[in-house]
Design a protein that fits this description.
heterotrimer, A mainly alpha, B mainly alpha, C alpha/beta, B: mainly alpha, ABC transporter involved in vitamin B12 uptake, BtuC, two-stranded antiparallel ribbon, 15 helices, 81% helix, globular, C: alpha/beta, Rossmann fold, 7-stranded mixed sheet, 4-stranded mixed sheet, 45% helix
Chain lengths: 287, 308, 403
């Protein structure tokens, strides 16, 4: 029981890390290597507001989300859009976006180091909570709740709204989407900005129970890449299910076998999934 | 051979000879920059041997490099084996690992291959730390040798020479031709009777072999090996980025990526030490937007301009 | 000029400037003494170095320059500090030290941050003859290393003495009848954690303890709750973690949530950080951690006050003071010799006793056998409770729950 509950909570954390990248890569086709830094930036905002203005991280998300949305929209519009337009092939875009977002990740780290070089550490809801005989931390539970809300909202929006349908169309095929009159550039910018906002909000929540610092982003980028690919590009369900699988596997291995093997086993599961499903859990084979 | 080839060979030999005398004329700092540069030239060029023609971007360089550094460290520190023995074993181990990865990834393409190699590198890193922790135990992994930076530099330069000769041979061999066809269209390659699987696996193996060899040679420079550091994912990313900056379609592409990259990196680190990360990021962006076809493209454009 | 051409020219300009900077040698300014420092401002070790290393360098340079500079034979000279960021990468570190030595031609260099970096840089310091007071390094190979590098000095202690300090504390509590002999031990699976855990197993067992839970966890583990649940279910009397900063925070938080009922709770690096008490408040009262200071001596009080005033930050309760001590030693040795003579200063450090904020320091075989090994949070202050040859240890208090 401990394993299932702790595993689900960890899965929620992973979903927060990966959902944003799923939108950014799946729709806007940008493999965003600055994803982890953006997450840490959300954490830094939360830390700063909590320590110096006593604002609860649960309120901070409402400040972080619009800023991150606008910021990411601007990044896409002015820095990434030119790369999309000039790229002749998907491969070329991948190369360019790797180079550009890697540069952005350095810039983010540089800015955060100037603001605060030490750890962003504070206590928020760091108290026990009993569910079904298992002790969990309240801050993790709160983050899990928000992950569920965000995941559900995204899923409903994507599948039951006009704008969501446009986003899905672009994700499946930008060229065909153009033919049916969808403004691909605008939809991509929207998806990129929305993805950025989700990631930054994730960082805000995660900073309540994981000690972050300015340089730690790359760890989250790698985890997010693994989850997005494992779930299959361009399907929000894939990312969420992959996140939960990793959470459960890591917790089970830590509890039953050895905590030393948690990360190794998570990567092993990822590798196995790709060996048997080379397009990820929910990915579609290219035609 | 055509005169063109002879020209290239003469240029290559002259450049190599010039590179070999660097330790005699450079000061300590310039030499240590040169060591870093040749290390990345070796890594990026051997990476591009596979990734250039096939367009498969591998993020496993860090894993192979780590295998090299780690095996040298544990062999010397825990088992009192000689550096030379471990430096010989390490690339073979990495080559076997690379074959296994190569076979496992045959069905993967595009971004799935990229992230698979990243996940694999991370798994290896965690597995090695765990094995070190539970079975080997350690009072720290020390690699204490009498090598100077110049020795390490020459060894790396030798490895680079081998990589270039191999790459040159590959470019005119049947294997190289097969790889280019695979890169253009894998289905066509299969049609004309190319064993696509083995061509890819063999090349991937060479990449792993050389990366581990370079990792092994670098280990004495670090003196104290931390598993988490030597299996650095950052290294994998940097290798890819330098190779892409240069251009992967020509053998000398990564070379012209690494050298300006290293110089700009040093310039920023030494002049803006408090904001170096920020400025490095800005430099990246500048390069991406201003030099869209890599340095190879830039040089070719300049070459055309001069001729006309 | 078109915009595109302009950016191209700009790029070419940057490139040319890089080339020039790379080849140029620094000019001499004789009225200052040049001191170099390389430490991680970014990367995994940056969070620790920004607390322990950076502020002390800043404070020391400010203090020395405020009193007119270092007193040398040809008059007082102010310090010109040249700092580089090694990005927690040994290759970058080596390059930066080489740059300081051969390009900037600095007079002295402040030793690196962390065991691995001190050892990686030792050959270069030795090659150019710079004294290296490796203050933030602990190792069990000190004898071999100092024999190899005649200008390398250690002040923070050996791996074994750290473990022995913890053992002594646990034995004291057990023998006073307040605690059983079951220990749960975890470690971060990185060089430092592996080394300490490896040293601890035989030492704890020899002292009659039973290690009931002994696991490692990888660097960057996002959820330590399974580790804490596992440790708790083994019903230990004491909990020992050879941990790094992020997991020191993480393990403590999980222990509070699981209400781990132990008589002694030890976490290693960063337990002594002011941020640790800032995060957990009174809940971590009587927690044990690596290091410690005696905050009640007048010298230490003055140090804490000056640190806060000059850098705006609180020092930690362990390596901060040690780092400052290493700078005091360097300062006194340079002034004692009276000129920028690296060999003479190295010899001076070997031959003399130094008056520091931690009392008198003297090196024997390049090793100062005076350091704190275990500290304890007592009513908001982290006090040294176990040391090797340092006076003023506070009395150990019994941990009583997480309130």
């Amino acid at each position: 029981m401990d394993i299932i509950i702790s595993g689900l909570l960890l899965g929620g954390t992973y979903a927060l890390i990966a959902m944003g990248l799923n939108l950014q890569y799946g729709v806007a086709r940008i493999m965003n290597l600055a994803n982890g830094e953006l997450l840490v930036l959300g954490g830094l905002a939360s830390f700063w507001l909590f320590v110096f203005a006593q604002i609860s991280p649960l309120l901070t998300i409402f400040i972080v989300a619009p800023f991150a949305f606008v910021g990411n929209w601007l990044i896409y519009r002015f820095l990434l859009r030119p790369l999309v337009s000039r790229a002749k092939t998907q491969g070329q875009l991948e190369v360019d976006s790797i180079l550009a977002t890697f540069g952005m990740s350095f810039i983010f780290v540089g800015i955060m180091v100037m603001i605060r070089g030490e750890y962003f550490t504070y206590s928020f809801l760091a108290a026990p909570f009993e569910i079904l005989g298992s002790t969990v931390a309240q801050n993790r539970l709160a983050a899990f709740g928000m992950a569920v809300v965000i995941g559900l909202a995204l899923y409903l929006w994507l599948n039951h709204s006009r704008a969501g349908m446009a986003v899905r169309a672009v994700s499946v095929s930008p060229d065909t989407a153009k033919l049916v009159g969808i403004n691909v550039a605008r939809v991509s910018a929207l998806a990129f900005a929305l993805g950025g906002a989700v990631t930054a909000v994730g960082g805000t929540l995660i900073s309540t129970f994981i000690t972050l610092d300015a340089s730690v982003g790359v760890i989250f980028t790698m985890k997010a890449l693994i989850i997005v690919i494992m779930g299959g590009v361009g399907d929000i369900r894939g990312a969420i299910i992959a996140a939960v699988i990793l959470g459960l596997v890591e917790t089970a291995v830590a509890t039953l076998i050895d905590p030393g093997l948690t990360l190794a086993s998570a990567y092993l599961i990822f590798l196995l999934v790709l060996l048997f499903r080379p397009q990820g859990l929910f990915g579609k084979r290219p035609t | 051979m055509r005169t063109n080839d002879w020209q290239s060979i003469v240029i290559a030999v002259v450049l190599f000879a010039l590179a070999a005398i660097v330790p005699f004329i450079a000061n300590g700092y310039q030499l240590s920059v040169a060591v870093t540069a040749v290390m990345y030239v070796g890594l990026a060029t051997s990476w591009a041997l596979f990734s250039g023609p096939t367009h498969y971007i591998s993020l496993a360089s860090g894993a192979f490099f780590g295998v090299g550094g780690y095996l040298v460290a544990t062999g010397m520190s825990d088992y009192n084996l000689s550096f030379w023995l471990m430096a010989a074993i390490a690339p073979l181990v990495a080559a076997v690992l690379a074959i296994l990865i190569g076979l496992a990834t045959l069905r993967l393409s595009g971004v799935y291959f990229v992230i698979f190699t990243l996940g694999l590198a991370e798994m290896v890193r965690n597995l090695v730390s765990w094995i070190q922790n539970n079975f080997l135990g350690s009072r720290g992994l020390y690699v204490l040798t009498d090598f100077t930076e110049a020795h390490i530099y020459w060894m790396l330069l030798g490895v680079c020479a081998i990589i270039f000769i191999f790459g040159w041979w590959l470019g005119r061999s049947r294997l190289g031709f097969a790889l280019r066809i695979i890169g253009n269209d894998e289905a066509v390659a299969k049609h004309v009777g190319i064993n696509t699987a083995w061509s890819k696996v063999i090349l991937f193996m060479t990449t792993g072999f050389f990366a581990a060899l370079i990792g092994a040679i670098i280990a004495p420079r670090y003196s104290y090996i931390e598993p988490n550091q030597v299996f650095s994912p950052e290294l994998s990313f940097l290798v890819v980025i330098m190779a892409l900056l240069g251009g992967t379609q020509r053998l000398w592409g990564p070379l012209v990526g690494v050298i300006p990259f290293t110089l700009v990196w040093e310039f920023i680190n030494s002049n803006f030490s408090n904001f170096s990360t920020l400025f490095l990021g800005l430099a990246f962006l500048l390069i991406v937007y201003v030099i869209p076809r890599g340095f190879v493209g830039l040089l070719q454009t300049w070459g055309e301009k001069i001729r006309t | 000029m078109k915009r595109r051409d302009f950016t191209k020219t700009l790029a070419a300009g940057v490139m040319a400037a890089s080339m020039a900077g790379f080849l140029a040698t620094a000019s001499w300014a004789a009225d200052t003494i040049k001191i170099g420092a390389v430490w991680p401002k970014t990367g995994p070790l940056a969070g620790g170095a920004t607390v322990t290393q950076g502020p002390n360098i800043e404070m020391w340079v400010k203090q020395v320059n405020a009193r007119g500079g270092l007193k040398l034979k040809d008059g007082q000279k102010k310090i010109e500090l040249i700092e580089y960021d090694d990005k927690t990468n040994p290759g970058e570190h080596i390059k930066a030290v080489q740059r300081l030595a051969t390009q900037d031609k600095v007079d002295f260099i402040i030793a690196p941050f962390g065991t691995g970096f001190n050892i990686a840089a030792a050959p270069i310091y030795a090659k150019y003859g710079y004294p290296q007071i490796a203050v933030s390094a602990i190792s069990d190979k000190i004898e071999e290393l100092t024999a190899r590098y005649p200008n390398l000095f250690f002040t923070l202690g050996t791996t074994t003495s750290f473990v022995e300090g913890v053992r002594d504390i646990l034995v004291d509590i057990r023998d006073s009848g307040k605690m059983g002999n079951k220990i749960a031990m975890v470690n971060v699976a990185d060089a430092f954690g592996i080394e300490l855990a490896d040293a601890a197993r035989p030492i704890f067992e020899k002292a009659g303890f039973e290690i009931v839970y002994d696991k490692s966890y990888p660097l960057g583990t996002p959820d330590l709750s399974p580790v804490m649940k596992g440790a708790k279910s083994a019903a230990p009397d004491a909990f020992v973690a050879w941990s790094y900063p992020p997991d020191t925070f993480g393990l403590t938080e999980q222990a509070i949530i699981e209400n781990l009922d132990v008589k002694a709770f030890y976490t290693a690096v960063a337990t002594c950080f002011p941020a640790y008490a800032g995060k957990f408040g009174s809940k971590i009262n009587y927690n044990l951690g690596a290091g410690g200071v005696n905050p009640d001596t007048p010298a230490m009080k003055a140090y804490f006050k000056a640190h806060k005033e000059l850098t705006g930050k609180e020092p930690d309760y362990w390596a901060s003071a040690n780092t400052y001590v290493s700078l005091q030693i360097l300062e006194q040795a340079i002034e004692g010799v009276g000129e920028s003579d690296k060999a003479a200063v190295t010899q001076y450090i070997k031959d003399n006793t130094f008056k520091t904020i931690m009392g008198d320091i003297k090196f024997e075989n390049q090793f100062s056998n005076r350091f704190w090994t275990v500290g304890q949070w007592q009513e908001g202050v982290f006090r040294g409770v176990k040391s090797v040859n340092v006076d003023g240890a506070a009395t150990i208090q019994q941990k009583t729950g997480w309130n």
